[in-house]
Design brief:
Oligomer: single chain
Distance between the termini: 32 Å
Helix content: 25-40%
Strand order of the largest sheet: 1-2-3
Number of helices: 3
Structural class: alpha+beta
Radius of gyration: 13 Å
Strand content: 25-35%
Shape: elongated
Length: 91
């Protein structure tokens, strides 16, 4: 299993435990960024996209939802995650 696949699974498990989502996808988009400077400087830090629906997001703004997710994976940022695209809903 590649380093980015291990990271993808780790993100998935953290978000599943933290939010108990009704829908959760974590997509590794690192291959789209192979030639970029940051990808060359930090090859183990990947680019990921999260699509998640969870009751925990009800009545929260997009900024509040994003903050919650970033707090959940804070220890992974810059080391294992270089970029994280988020699509979050409460449905």
């Amino acid at each position: 299993m590649s380093v980015h696949e291990l990271t993808r699974v780790k993100i998935y498990n953290i978000l599943k435990k933290s939010f108990n989502p009704s829908n959760l996808e974590v997509i590794d988009e690192s291959s789209y960024h192979k030639g970029h400077t940051e990808a060359l400087l930090h090859p183990s830090a990947g680019h990921f996209k999260v699509i998640m629906a969870a009751d925990a997001f009800k009545n929260l703004s997009m900024v509040e939802r994003h903050r919650m997710v970033y707090r959940a994976v804070a220890d992974m940022m810059d080391k294992e995650i270089h970029a994280l695209a988020l699509s979050l809903s409460d449905k």
